[in-house]
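Write out a record, fold above all:
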Amino acid sequence: MPTTRITSGLLILLAISTSSLLSGLNADEQATLPVEVEIAFPNIRVNRPIVITHAGDNSNRLFVASQLGKIHVMDNDQEVAETTIFFDLEAKVQYADKMNEEGLLGFAFHPEYRKTGHFFIYYTIKDAARTSVISRFTVSKDDPNKADPASEVELMRIKQPFWNHNGGTIAFGHDGYLYVGLGDGGKANDPFKNGQNLGTLHGSILRIDVDRHDAGKAYAIPRDNPFVGVEGARAEIYAYGFRNVWRLSFDRKTGSLFAADVGQDIWEEINVVVKGGNYGWNLREARHKFGAAGADEAGDMIDPILEYNHTVGKSITGGHVYRGDRVKALAGKYIYADYVSGIMWALDLTKDNQAGTNYTIPWSKLPVLTFGEDEDGDVYFGTHLSGGRLYRFQDK
């Protein structure tokens, strides 16, 4: 997640299908949609908004987590005057601007939140160096807009070799399991070759059962995870070969899992993630051989559905397939952006989740830190600039 920006007017090299590239076009020559960006909740600012989500409890509330450790809750009303602090974890969260891939990175509500009151947070802990924690918390019994600060149950602790490439998105799939996006551990070139090592959690998307416990664990491993019983493999792994997933999401209609993986030298990519899939890092960057030991042919590695090179942008921010009713032009399209160039797109998808036309969405090209959904499937996004503004889309 770089902290620099570059200007617009860049040469575009965009993959718009699994087999063809569209090259040599200026950004303003791309196909565009009749969509505009507008400020959402004009009275609200959240410092470094990292997760935008809802509780799935029919309350129509919107929750916005700050990377520094606070979680805000508000009525989903554009005229809302202020937020309430649902949970304040800042005292336990490690975050510094010079190491801005740590902090509170993931936040998800249990699918049965109305019954359990449980939610989950992925964060960098302050009292242990380079350590990510996934914990369960519970809402207060007395106030639905307050969490119980004494309710933490730690599920998983992951040592990180470096401060960057922590990933951190957590999300529940349609199967009720919790999925966790982890980076390769950091630095450049994947020095420990974690991406292709099934013996480590790094460089993988995990899948765990938070409603059961295996012996010696605060969670259970689903019996149909692809590497259960494989000698030397971590059974939590659902898919592997990732550099730094930023961010992952489930299509609320189909259940398909989309993951945007930040590249290193040349290529950014979007993947549709399947059980047991190997997505190539660090032998491949997107569809291309990486390094002297890289793979010329994909073999059993799965190509992304879309890639773009570093003349376009240098740090992809994954989003959501739009399933809301409010913005007709975005229906069924995967919305994503580049954090460095600020360019934003909406990608048409075929019935088998391959890439169709890739449209640009005109806007001011600020760095997009994250995307999120409300209870109705409307998509929002946030930037850390201007005090942490939130935005949404509207039809022209």
